[in-house]
Recover the amino acids of this structure.
C-alpha cells in the first residue's frame, strides 16, 4: 500500500473521472485535473468564485463546477481547454446542479425548488421542469442513462415523473400514495423504481417503469420509518434501513421481506467475527521513544471474543433527526455483502453476508464511522472515522492503515477509483491517494504488506 | 419429656429412687417414707413393736392380730380348737404362713406402688409438657391472631390503595384518551395547516416564478463558446408523436427484456431442479430395486409399490421428453412418485439402521472381542516363552563365562586340562543343541507372527468385504446426498456465486504464500485446529514487527471465515474414508456409517 503526497483541497471536492483516467479536485476557485495514476497536473481551470460542487460528465469529457452562492455553473472541457461554458441562473438562484447521463445537458435546480432547468450543450434549447420536490433524494437517473425519475409535489400530493433523457419527453406521470415522499431510486436494471415516504411513516413503494405499482411495503406503524435504502447491484434485493435499527431486505420476485437484520448492541452469535480496533501500545516499552508525538497512536484490529457488546449512544429524544436507526447502508459490487451503520452505535460497521442473510463481521472502530464505501471491483470495504487512518476490510481480514505525512491528516471521506486500485482520502483541506497494489491473479484482497509505513 | 422418660424408666429401683428424690414430688416423698419405714424394719423390730406388743400383752396382741388377720381373710393364727373351753393355741405354722404371705403382699404392694409412682411421674411430665405446649400454642394463637389482624389491616389498606390506583388509572386512561384526541385533532389541524401553508407556499412560488422567470431576465442565460456535438453523434430529434410512440415502444421493450431475462432465469432454475428431481428418482429406484430381488426379506406392502414403480420405468424414457415440454402435466406424478419412494427409502434406511445397530450390539462385539482376546492371550504366552528362553540362554552364557574365567588360573589349568577337552566337546554339543533350540524358538515365533498376520489379513478381508457391502449401501445414499448438495449449491447460485467456491477461490491461494513467507506453519496449523481468536494468534501478532502487521493480520483473519468450511470438508472426507477403507477397527467403521447416516438425515432435512 502506497500513499501519494498530500494535495490541497477545499470543501472535500475531489472526484475520479468515470473512465478512471483523471482526478479532479478543487482548491477554492481553482479546478485541478490530474492524471489519476501519475498525479501530474493536466489542466487547471479557474472559476469565478469558490467552487461548491464539481461533477464529471459521464463520458469524462466535461466538468461542471457549480457556485451556488452566485447562481452560476461553469462547464469545462478536457479536450479543448479554451472551450468554456457559463450558465447563469440569475435571480432565480441555484441550489443543485447535475449532469444528465449523456453528458450534454446540465440540470439546474433553482432556489425554492421553483423549477428545474435543463440546459443543453448541443443546442440552444432549454427545457424547464416545474414543481420538483425538495426532498432528500428527489432525482434519480436509471443506470443505463435512459430515464430520469423526478419527484414532484403538486397540490399537496406527491407525484413521480419519468422522463426520457434523450429528448426530455415525459414518459409517465403518476401520483404516489405517500404522505411526504422522501426519496426515489431506480433499481440498477432500470425497471423498478423504489419510492419511500418521509421518516414519519414507514412506507416503501415499488413502481414499474410503466408506472404500475408493483408492491407496497410497510413494516410497522406509529413510529419513525425509513432512514435509508439501497439496491443491490444485481437488482435482486432492496435493503431498507429504518429508525428501529433494522434493515429489511426485500426480494425482487415477491417484494416481500427476505430477512430482518437487527443491529443489537450485543453480538452473541459465535459465527460472527468481531474486529475491534485497538490502540497499539507503544512499541518502545524498553526505553525507546514510542513514536513521534505529533502522530496519532497506531492501531490494529483484534478479534474480540463473542459475545461482544458495542458502545451505544443514547439519542436525545427531544431533538429532531435523532441519532438512531440505520443511516447508511451499501451493497458490495458483487451483491454478496451488505455494509450498514446503525447511528446509535456510531463506532461500528456491520457487514452482512447476503447469501446467508446473516451477520458476518462487525468492525468496531475507536471513533465514530464517518464514511464507508465498497471497492467497485471486489468485496472490499474502505472505512474512515475522521482520524488519520483508513481501514480496509475484505473477507480475508481487516487492516488499519496509518496515513503517512506530517501533521494530522483527518480522513473525513473517501472515494474509490473505478478499477479499485486506488482510493482518494479526503480531509478538510487536503487529500491524498492511496494505491493498493494487487497481485496477479487477484490473490490478495488487501494488497501486499511491507510498503505500509 | 422423652429424656425424662428414659431416666425414670423403672428398671432399677435405685435409679427411680434417685430421681424421685431429686424431683421431690409429693408422691415420691411418700414412697420415701414408706421405703424408710420398710427398710429398717428388720433392724429395729424391737423398738418398732415395743409399742404394740410387750411381755404382758402377748395374748391380747396375738388375739388382736388373729382377729385382724381373719378379717382380712387370712387363716386363723390359732389351731383349730377341739373344744371351746380349751385354750386355743398359737399355730406357729399359720403364723409363719401369714407372715410370709404378708411379706409377699408387702413386696407386691411396694412394686405396684413403684409402678404407680413412675406412672405418676410420667403422667406428671406429660402433663407439664402438655401444659407447655398449650401455653406455646396459646401464644402462637395470640400472635397469629395479631398477625391476622395486621394482615387484614394491610389488606384493607392495599385494597384502598388499589381502589385509588384504579381510580388513578382510570383518570390516566381518560387523560390518555383526551391527549390522544388532542393529538389527533392537532394532527388534523397540523395537516390542514400544512396544506394551507403549502398552498400558500405554492401560490407564492407561482408568483415568484412569474416574477423571476417571466421578466426577461437577461441574467438567466448560457454563454457557450460553441455548441458541442451530441455524445452519440446524432442530431437532436424533434419531439413529435412519433418519438413519443417510439419512447413507449422502447420502454416496453426494456420491460419485456427484463421479464424475459427473469423468465429465462427461472426456467433455467426450474430445469435444473427438475433434473435433480429426476436424477433423484432414478437413483432411488436403482437403490430400491435390489430389494425387489429378495422379497422374502421385505414382504411388506411397500415392496409392491416399489415393484410397480420400477415396472413403470420402461415408459419413462419416452416420457422424459415430455417433461421438458411442460412441467404441469407430470409435476404431480413426479412429486408423488418421489414422495412415495422417499417414504420407502426412509423406512428402508431406518430398518437398515436398526439392523446395523443390532448387529453392532450382538454379533460384532462377540466376534471381535473373542478373537482379540485369543490373539492377546496367544501373544502373551509366546512372549512369556521367549522370556524364559532368553533367561535360560543368559544363565547358560553366564555359566560359560564363569567357566572361561576360572580356566584362566594357571595352576588349575593344568589340572583341568585333562578334562577340559572333554568338557569343551560337551559344551559344544550343548551349544549346538542350544542353538538348535533357539532356532526352533525363532521359527516358532516367526510362524506365529505369520499366523497372526494371516489372521489379521483374514480379518481385514472380511472387514473389507463388509465395508464394501456397507459402502455399496451407503454410496447409493451418498449419491443421493450429492444430489442434495447440488441442489443446495444451485439454490445459492441463485443469489450469487456459490459460497464455498468463492471462499476457496479467495482464500486458498492466499494462505499458501503466507504460510511459507511468514514462516508460520505452526500458526496456521493451530488455526485449522482452533477457532478464531485463540490467544496464540494474538501473541503471534504481537511478536511480529509492525511492518508485517498487515500480513499477520491477514493470516489471522483468514482463519475464522475459512477454517470452518475447511474443517467441515475435512471431517466429511474423513468420514467417507472411514467407510471406504478403514478396516482397522470395526467400531470406527460402524460409527462412520452411523455418522454418514445422520449426515444424510440432516442434509435431507435441510431440503426445503
Amino acid at each position: 500500500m502506497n500513499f501519494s503526497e498530500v494535495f490541497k483541497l477545499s470543501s472535500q471536492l475531489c472526484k475520479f473521472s468515470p473512465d478512471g483516467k483523471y482526478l479532479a479536485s478543487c482548491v477554492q476557485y481553482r479546478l485541478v485535473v490530474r492524471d489519476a495514476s501519475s498525479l501530474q497536473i493536466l489542466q487547471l481551470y479557474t472559476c469565478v468564485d469558490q467552487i461548491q460542487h464539481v461533477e464529471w460528465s459521464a463520458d469524462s469529457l466535461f466538468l461542471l463546477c457549480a457556485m451556488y452562492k452566485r447562481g452560476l455553473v461553469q462547464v469545462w472541457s478536457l479536450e479543448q481547454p479554451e472551450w468554456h461554458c457559463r450558465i447563469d441562473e440569475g435571480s432565480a438562484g441555484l441550489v443543485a446542479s447535475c449532469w444528465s447521463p449523456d453528458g450534454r445537458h446540465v440540470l439546474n435546480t433553482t432556489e425554492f425548488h421553483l423549477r428545474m432547468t435543463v440546459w443543453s450543450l448541443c443546442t440552444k434549447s432549454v427545457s424547464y421542469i416545474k414543481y420538483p420536490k425538495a426532498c432528500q433524494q428527489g432525482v434519480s437517473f436509471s443506470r443505463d442513462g435512459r430515464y430520469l425519475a423526478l419527484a414532484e409535489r403538486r397540490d399537496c400530493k406527491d407525484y413521480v415523473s419519468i422522463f426520457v433523457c434523450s429528448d426530455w419527453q415525459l414518459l409517465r406521470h403518476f401520483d404516489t400514495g405517500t404522505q411526504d415522499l422522501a426519496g426515489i431510486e431506480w433499481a440498477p436494471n432500470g425497471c423498478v423504481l423504489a419510492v419511500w415516504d418521509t421518516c414519519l411513516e414507514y412506507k416503501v413503494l415499488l413502481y414499474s417503469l410503466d408506472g404500475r405499482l408493483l408492491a407496497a411495503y410497510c413494516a410497522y406503524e406509529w413510529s419513525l420509518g425509513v432512514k435509508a435504502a439501497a439496491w443491490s447491484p444485481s437488482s435482486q434485493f432492496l435493503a431498507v434501513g429504518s429508525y428501529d435499527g433494522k434493515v429489511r431486505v426485500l426480494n425482487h420476485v415477491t417484494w416481500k421481506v427476505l430477512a430482518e437484520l437487527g443491529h443489537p448492541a450485543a453480538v452473541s452469535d459465535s459465527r460472527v467475527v468481531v474486529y475491534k480496533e485497538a490502540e497499539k501500545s507503544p512499541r518502545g516499552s524498553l526505553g525507546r521513544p514510542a513514536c513521534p508525538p505529533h502522530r496519532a497512536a497506531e492501531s490494529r484490529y483484534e478479534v474480540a471474543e463473542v459475545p461482544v457488546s458495542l458502545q451505544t449512544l443514547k439519542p436525545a429524544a427531544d431533538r429532531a433527526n435523532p441519532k438512531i436507526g440505520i443511516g447508511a447502508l451499501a451493497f458490495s459490487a458483487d451483491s454478496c455483502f451488505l455494509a450498514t451503520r446503525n447511528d446509535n452505535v456510531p463506532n461500528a460497521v456491520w457487514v452482512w453476508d447476503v447469501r446467508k442473510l446473516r451477520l458476518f463481521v462487525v468492525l468496531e472502530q475507536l471513533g465514530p464511522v464517518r464514511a464507508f464505501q465498497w471497492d467497485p471491483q471486489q468485496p472490499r470495504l474502505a472505512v474512515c472515522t475522521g482520524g488519520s487512518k483508513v481501514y480496509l476490510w475484505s473477507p480475508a481480514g481487516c487492516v488499519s492503515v496509518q496515513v503517512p505525512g506530517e501533521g494530522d491528516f483527518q480522513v473525513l471521506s473517501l472515494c474509490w477509483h473505478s478499477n479499485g486500485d486506488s482510493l482518494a482520502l479526503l480531509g478538510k483541506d487536503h487529500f491524498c491517494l492511496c494505491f493498493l497494489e494487487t497481485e496477479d491473479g487477484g490473490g490478495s484482497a488487501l494488497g501486499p504488506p511491507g510498503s505500509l509505513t | 419429656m422423652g429424656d425424662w422418660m428414659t431416666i425414670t424408666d423403672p428398671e432399677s429401683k435405685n435409679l427411680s429412687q434417685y430421681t424421685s428424690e431429686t424431683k421431690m414430688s409429693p408422691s415420691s416423698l411418700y414412697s420415701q417414707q414408706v421405703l424408710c419405714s420398710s427398710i429398717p424394719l428388720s433392724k429395729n423390730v424391737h423398738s418398732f413393736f415395743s409399742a404394740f406388743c410387750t411381755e404382758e400383752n402377748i395374748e391380747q396382741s396375738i388375739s388382736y392380730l388373729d382377729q385382724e388377720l381373719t378379717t382380712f381373710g387370712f387363716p386363723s393364727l390359732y389351731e383349730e380348737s377341739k373344744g371351746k373351753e380349751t385354750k386355743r393355741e398359737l399355730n406357729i405354722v399359720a403364723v409363719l404362713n401369714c407372715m410370709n404371705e404378708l411379706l409377699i403382699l408387702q413386696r407386691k404392694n411396694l412394686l405396684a406402688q413403684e409402678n404407680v409412682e413412675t406412672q405418676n411421674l410420667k403422667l406428671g411430665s406429660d402433663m407439664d409438657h402438655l401444659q407447655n405446649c398449650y401455653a406455646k400454642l396459646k401464644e402462637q394463637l395470640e400472635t397469629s391472631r395479631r398477625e391476622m389482624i395486621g394482615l387484614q389491616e394491610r389488606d384493607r389498606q392495599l385494597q384502598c390503595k388499589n381502589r385509588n390506583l384504579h381510580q388513578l388509572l382510570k383518570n390516566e386512561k381518560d387523560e390518555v384518551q383526551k391527549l390522544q384526541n388532542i393529538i389527533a385533532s392537532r394532527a388534523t389541524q397540523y395537516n390542514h395547516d400544512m396544506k394551507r401553508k403549502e398552498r400558500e407556499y405554492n401560490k407564492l412560488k407561482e408568483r415568484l416564478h412569474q416574477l423571476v422567470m417571466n421578466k426577461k431576465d437577461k441574467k438567466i442565460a448560457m454563454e457557450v463558446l460553441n455548441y458541442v456535438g451530441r455524445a452519440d453523434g446524432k442530431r437532436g430529434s424533434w419531439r413529435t408523436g412519433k418519438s413519443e410512440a417510439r419512447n413507449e415502444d422502447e420502454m416496453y421493450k426494456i420491460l419485456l427484456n427484463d421479464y424475459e431475462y427473469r423468465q429465462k432465469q427461472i426456467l433455467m432454475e426450474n430445469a435444473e431442479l427438475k433434473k435433480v428431481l429426476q436424477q433423484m428418482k432414478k437413483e432411488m429406484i436403482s437403490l430400491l430395486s435390489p430389494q425387489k430381488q429378495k422379497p422374502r426379506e421385505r414382504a411388506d406392502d411397500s415392496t409392491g409399490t416399489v415393484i410397480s414403480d420400477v415396472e413403470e420405468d420402461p415408459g419413462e424414457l419416452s416420457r422424459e421428453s415430455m417433461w421438458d415440454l411442460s412441467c404441469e402435466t407430470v409435476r404431480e406424478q413426479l412429486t408423488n412418485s418421489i414422495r412415495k419412494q422417499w417414504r420407502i427409502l426412509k423406512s428402508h434406511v431406518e430398518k437398515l439402521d436398526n439392523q446395523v445397530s443390532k448387529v453392532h450390539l450382538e454379533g460384532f462385539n462377540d466376534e471381535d472381542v473373542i478373537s482379540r482376546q485369543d490373539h492377546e492371550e496367544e501373544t502373551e504366552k509366546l512372549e512369556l516363552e521367549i522370556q524364559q528362553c532368553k533367561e535360560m540362554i543368559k544363565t547358560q552364557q553366564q555359566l560359560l563365562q564363569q567357566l572361561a574365567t576360572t580356566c584362566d588360573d594357571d595352576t588349575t589349568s593344568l589340572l583341568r586340562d585333562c578334562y577340559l577337552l572333554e568338557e569343551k566337546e560337551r559344551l559344544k554339543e550343548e551349544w549346538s543343541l542350544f542353538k538348535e533350540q533357539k532356532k526352533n524358538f525363532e521359527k516358532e515365533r516367526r510362524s506365529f507372527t505369520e499366523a497372526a498376520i494371516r489372521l489379521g489379513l483374514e480379518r481385514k478381508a472380511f472387514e473389507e468385504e463388509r465395508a464394501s457391502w456397507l459402502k455399496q449401501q451407503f454410496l447409493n445414499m451418498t449419491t443421493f446426498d450429492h444430489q442434495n448438495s447440488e441442489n443446495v449449491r444451485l439454490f445459492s447460485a441463485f443469489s450469487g456465486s456459490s459460497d464455498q467456491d468463492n471462499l476457496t477461490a479467495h482464500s486458498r491461494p492466499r494462505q499458501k504464500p503466507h504460510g511459507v513467507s511468514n514462516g508460520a506453519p505452526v500458526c496456521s496449523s493451530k488455526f485449522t485446529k482452533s477457532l478464531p481468536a485463540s490467544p496464540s494468534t494474538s501473541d503471534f501478532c504481537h511478536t511480529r514487527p509492525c511492518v508485517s502487521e498487515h500480513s499477520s493480520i491477514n493470516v489471522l483473519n483468514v482463519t475464522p471465515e475459512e477454517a470452518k468450511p475447511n474443517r467441515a470438508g475435512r471431517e466429511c472426507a474423513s468420514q467417507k474414508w472411514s467407510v471406504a477403507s478403514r478396516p482397522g477397527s470395526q467400531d470406527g467403521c460402524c460409527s462412520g456409517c452411523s455418522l454418514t447416516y445422520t449426515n444424510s438425515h440432516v442434509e435431507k432435512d435441510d431440503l426445503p
Summary: The two ends of chain A are 9 Å apart (CA to CA).
